[in-house]
Write a structure and sequence with these properties.
By secondary structure, the chain is α+β, with helices and mostly antiparallel strands. The chain has a domain of 109 residues: Aspartate Aminotransferase, domain 1. The protein contains five helices and six strands. It has a six-stranded antiparallel beta sheet. Strand 3 and strand 4 form a beta hairpin. Helix 1 packs parallel to helix 3. The longest helix is centred in the middle third of the chain and has 15 residues. It is globular, with a radius of gyration of 17 Å. The protein starts with a helix and ends in a 20-residue tail after the last helix.
Length: 156
């Protein structure tokens, strides 16, 4: 369980994140753009993830924690119930979003070749939160499997 105060501390722990508003609601902003917010109506955190597929996997693996409303169905965002979530999971998902969203100047300022923990943009093949959750649940990681699509017909 994560309290509202704990969630606020987690969100503000990321370099460049500050309190602000998004569409008239209290939110946390990174470089004046939406980073995350707490939904008062269901005590859930709005978390931006890498893709809709990642969001759907999070909901499938942990339906007690993660959910989505019709408002977010077409966006790579998931809602996390604070009453069921743990701080490590929230911190990890927010860290991934921070790496994808932070301005390059902030990334350069904070990254150092000697500091392995420095926040840097994730690279292809890097382990993400979804992969860690699948592993924790004993499920295989198919994220690097080739995409299956329609085969093109040969012209006769």
């Amino acid at each position: 369980m994560v309290s509202k105060t704990q969630f606020e501390k987690i969100a503000l722990s990321f370099e460049g994140v500050e309190k602000g508003e998004s569409y008239g609601k209290p939110a946390f902003l990174l470089a004046k753009k939406f980073f995350t917010r707490l939904r008062q109506e269901d005590n859930s955190a709005v978390l931006i993830v890498g893709s809709i597929d990642e969001r759907d996997m999070l909901i499938e693996v942990e339906p007690g924690i993660f959910h989505v409303t019709s408002h977010y169905k077409d966006y790579p965002a998931v809602l996390a119930r604070l009453a069921k979530a743990d701080s490590k999971t929230l911190q990890g998902l927010l860290a991934q979003h921070w790496r994808r969203s932070a301005p390059k100047s902030l990334l350069k300022k904070l990254s150092s070749p000697l500091d392995e923990e420095a926040p840097v943009r994730s690279t292809p093949g890097a382990t993400d939160g979804a992969t860690r959750l699948r592993a924790a649940k004993g499920r295989p990681d198919h994220s690097s499997s080739p995409k299956r699509g329609k085969k093109k017909r040969k012209k006769a």
